[in-house]
Write a structure and sequence with these properties.
Length: 122
């Protein structure tokens, strides 16, 4: 019997990302611009010796898109400081996933005291 049929794709990796993302605003506070959060995530990822690429370039056929961060070489992380995650951010993430041929993305919103995050799968 397959007991893993309900397991999420890259579940453990996503939970690790969210876990150390929660630490970032505990140190930096919430509501500042996005780049310091992205850079702090890079430090957290590096401390855990997780492979990553920051601001990697991808060939896009039309209107260039820029991906913020890729962790574990397979999960896109997009940092935001916005009122709330909307369909606009979800659409951007789905485009990033299509462009990179990756399957899992995590949107992290550092605007409020409590981290808001969403996991998207293509």
């Amino acid at each position: 019997m397959d007991t893993n049929h309900d397991r999420l794709l890259l579940e453990e990796e996503v939970f690790q990302i969210v876990g150390f993302a929660i630490e970032v605003p505990n140190t930096l506070g919430h509501g500042i611009v996005e780049k310091p959060y992205e850079n702090a995530l890079v430090v957290e990822i590096g401390l855990r010796k997780i492979p990553f690429r920051q601001q990697p370039a991808f060939d896009v056929l039309y209107k260039g898109q820029q991906v913020d961060l890729i962790a574990f070489d397979i999960i896109i992380i997009d940092t935001k400081v916005i009122d709330k995650i909307t369909d606009h951010e979800r659409g951007l993430m789905l485009n990033y996933l299509r462009i990179t041929h990756l399957r899992v993305g995590v949107i992290l919103n550092f605007k409020h005291r409590k981290l808001e995050w969403e996991r998207l799968v293509l």
